[in-house]
Design goal:
This protein is of the alpha+beta class. It has one domain: Aminopeptidase. Helix content is 27%, strand content 29%. It is built from four helices and seven strands. A seven-stranded mixed β-sheet has the order 1-2-3-4-5-7-6, with helices on both faces. Strand 4, helix 3 and strand 5 form a beta-alpha-beta unit. The chain is globular, with a radius of gyration of 16 Å. The two termini are 26 Å apart. Bound molecules: coenzyme A (COA). Coenzyme A binds next to strand 4, helix 3 and helix 4.
Length: 177
Amino acid sequence: MKVMADIEVRVLGEADWQVYRDLRLAALRESPGAVVAADEEQSRDDEQGWRERMRSIRLLVADRAGEAVGIIGLGVHARDEQAGEILGVWVAPQARRSRVAWDLVRAGAEHSRAQGHRRLYFWVGSDNGSAVAFASAFGFRPTSDRRPARGTDAGDSPGEVAMVLSLSVDPGNPRLP
Ligand SMILES: CC(C)(COP(=O)(O)OP(=O)(O)OC[C@H]1O[C@@H](n2cnc3c(N)ncnc32)[C@H](O)[C@@H]1OP(=O)(O)O)[C@@H](O)C(=O)NCCC(=O)NCCS
């Protein structure tokens, strides 16, 4: 019988820049259509560059059995200051379908709510079945907001849709999943 080890989610600090670098590079390599490199993305050895990038994003990492197996980046929505935004979430292939993303997004949503946000946005590729299925299962709802895809296969892609999760505490939405 396969027994899943517990997943622990922690906030990454600048001192963990190598953990961030290794996960980020793995994600860019493994999911180039879903994980998009920033123009200023630095080389592997640019410690200062990695540290600087970490200052503008809130990063949470999931550890399982002592191994970092997933990461989520969080920011503030550009046009809605009452909303947080998931800038990306990636789980290592060997750890998928074991609720790693679920725990990361739940921790991210709690973090966003603690910042005073009422909503959390998540842009997903309309053709990214795993991400759309995950976001829907978690409780995100599609909006009419669309934008062109930005990944390496952007030319063939139908683009991205913004999905949104309410963070309000009300009788209909008492707590996160
Ligand atoms: C999308 C992604 C983050 C999901 O991570 P995960 O850890 O495998 O997801 P979870 O195990 O937490 O899934 C929770 C639920 O979401 C749904 N789900 C997740 N992946 C799914 C898939 N491939 N197909 C159908 N449903 C899926 C299921 O309901 C699942 O529950 P179940 O396993 O009990 O059926 C992961 O596939 C990934 O890293 N993909 C590459 C990067 C990416 O596309 N990121 C998103 C855009 S930035």
